[in-house]
Amino acid sequence: RGHRNQNVSPEIPGVASWNFEAGKDRSDVNQEVRFSSNFEREPAEFVAKGGSVSKTKQQTSSKLRAEKKWDPAKNQIGRILDEAFCSSELGRYHIVLDECEKLAKYVAAFHWFSDKKITMRELYKMNKLMCNAYVKTGSYDKCRECIVLAKEYLGTLADNMSSRTNESKQTEKSLNLNMMVERADIQEIENDLSSLQLLSNRAKEELSRLKGPAVLALAQRMIAKSPMSPRPWLLQACGHILNHRNEKYSEEDTEKLRKAISQSVHSCVGAIPKFDKSYERFGEVLKSQVCDCAFKYGRILHHSGLMEEALMFFETLYSELQHTVGYRCKDLDSRLNPLLVECNLYHKLAAQKEKANDTFRKGNYKEAIRLYTLGMQTIPDHRYFIAIMFCNRAAAYMAIGDFTAALEDCSCALRHRSRYVKARIRRARARVALGKLDGAVTDLKRAYEIEKTPAVLQELREVQRQARSAFRRSQKRENVNNSNFNRGTSYYSNHGRNTNSSPDYTSYSKFREQEQSKWRRDSRGSAGKPNSGIKSRTKEKTYYQVLGVSVSESDSGIRKAYHKMALKFHPDKNPNSEDQFKLVQEAYETLKDSTKRRAYDLKIRIRTPVRSGFQRQQSSPNSPFYGGYRF
Questions:
Q1: In sequence order, what are the residues at sequence separation of 6 or more whose Cβ sits closer than 8 angstroms to the Cβ of residue 242?
Q2: Which H, E and C letters describe 227-263, residue by residue?
Q3: Section 319-330 average pLDDT
Q4: Dist CA 35 CA 29 (whole Å)
Q5: CA torsion 501→507→508→512, rounded to 10°?
Q6: For the chain: N or C, fewer Cβ within 10 A?
Q7: Mean pLDDT within 12-18
Q8: Model pTM?
Q9: Strand, coil or helix: what is 629?
Q10: Torsion angles phi and psi, residue 399, rounded to 5
Q11: SS3 522
Q12: Contact (Cβ atoms closer than 8 angstroms) between residue 161 and residue 146
């Protein structure tokens, strides 16, 4: 109030001071293009600089100058709003926001409306200009607030006009027409805001689906509606990246991609407000529309497998910001801290992957397995990177002959990324090594559906040939067994045995089951106890049962089970269990070696009774023989 009584313009922090003293003109109206301070008196100068002023307004200005009734010192608020309108017509939306936001601060701080220094029509005009500028610069939340205020002011103006009774019919009709036009303008701005928000959400969805042309088309539509917003330019850069994802391009194509990204990022940085002229809005736009959006878009690219391109996107944006505003904004790194942290994390993942791959190429497979496991622990929520680490670790397991662990790792990789062709091919090779030929054929067929390449087709045909050969061998073995059975029954019939009193054996498998049941009956007495003259033959335990593990247990699990059982049956601790301790040692010596373990697995598989000649094995997916055949 002291400032207003002394007729001195106050100083507000962060806002350039205005001079509202009578008889003085305001010189710093425009920040980038200097317009004449006497716009109403010099409309031709604005037209010469590219503006468009209606003839009616020019005639009104000429008439006021001729009658000498227009005093620029008494109409500074109107002049400021007219200059903001001129800047809006020229596309200088940040200048519009600078002028209108400063005016709004003065109106709120010094009660100009209550003191009748600003009219309701001028308040409406100011909010309408701010609504349009916020839409064009991409500040959706503030635009929504200004639309609400503009509707309130417009409703108040309509109520005031309806309360007038001394207006002529022609004047009332023109005022009603003007109100309809203003409502249509506000509705158009509100429709543009809703359309931009919808386009932004759709572009993000298409980006997550890796559809480059759709992202580029949506970004162009957003740029047409909001040219001074950094968000659509970042989407355009991501669209250029997606258009190159399926191409194995050369260095020349890489340079073209880098140039396209650089152009879009340069336009994005050019849409940021000037640091030294609108400090608050510079920080807000840099955080909400540049840093946060680039963080989201770059993370989508990296988690979709475009790791090198995502790093290129981050580095191009950071270098452009450093070149444009880094020398003026000393705290730029702290403002871009989330972006820099994410970029450093991606560099770390790339370094870990490269180190593990180099160790694998050198032949140090166990160290490579350790490094791949360590890399998976760095970022457990990155599904694409975890799938790569599982697949590479499976290759290391296959190199040391542990095909069971390789099969498990390939299955884990496919759970994280179902269309991973390399993991499917590698799992098919592990299944071939374990004898699961039908599962290998299924994996290779699926891999060929995803990626139709001659190499995959050739490998599929080779595995199918092996499966057919194994089927023919199994049929031949079954025929031999049946012929031996028939030879034995014909011998009894030729030597006078009463075959009618014996069971009717119609197949070798039924004969085998009957013989096994007869052997079990002979090994017991009539009361169910073993005979004194016959040595009792109990069912022999497998090495897996001795150690208390499943047949699909990994090497580490077998080692832990061995230590546990050895501690339990050690002679020093339990003198009566020396035989059991030797059996535990024998089981561990067999199962810890991958070659001996495969031979033992084949042995216990052949010993398992079969119901018919050649059937698919109905075992659980955790079994190492899942997906194979019994021979």
A1: 207, 210, 211, 212, 215, 306
A2: CCCHHHHHHHHHHHHHHCCCCCCCHHHHHHHHHHHHH
A3: 85
A4: 7
A5: -50
A6: N
A7: 34
A8: 0.61
A9: strand
A10: -65, -30
A11: helix
A12: no
Is the predicted pLDDT of residue 487 greater than 70, yes or no?
A: no
Structure tokens at 89: 């017509």
pLDDT reading at 47 higher than 80: no
Report the phi/psi class of residue 314: left, alpha or beta, with left for phi > 0 and alpha for psi in -120 to 50.
alpha
Beta-bridge partner residues of 616: 629
Looking at every residue in the chain, the average pLDDT score rounds to 76
Question: pLDDT band for position 75 (50/70/90)?
Answer: low
Cα–Cα dist 76/515, whole Å? 113
pLDDT on residue 277: 73
Query: What is the per-residue DSSP string for 1-62?
Result: -HHHHHT-----TTS------TT-------SSS---S-TTT-HHHHHHTT----HHHHHHHH
Q: Is the pLDDT of residue 218 over 90?
A: yes
- pLDDT higher than 70, residue 473: yes
Query: Which sign does the torsion angle of CA 255, 259, 260, 261 carry?
Result: positive
Looking at the chain, the number of H-run helices and the number of E-run strands are 27, 0
Residues contacting 177, CB < 8 A, separation 6+: none
Q: Which two tokens stand for residue 120?
A: 């309701």
User: Going along 477-611, which residue ranges are E strands?
Assistant: none
What number is the average pLDDT over the span 155-161? 81
CB 274 within 8 A of CB 31: yes
State residue 191's pLDDT score: 92
Average pLDDT for 529-544? 54
- The answer to whether 221 and 212 are in contact (CB under 8 A) is no
Between CA 65 and CA 40 the distance in angstroms is 9
Alpha carbon of residue 161 to chain centroid? 55
> How many whole angstroms separate alpha carbon 495 and alpha carbon 501?
15
- Is the pLDDT assigned to residue 217 strictly greater than 90? yes
What type of residue sits at position 396? A
Express each pLDDT in 339-357 by its tens digit: 899 999 999 999 999 999 9
Angle at 474 between CA 472 and CA 477, to 5 degrees: 110
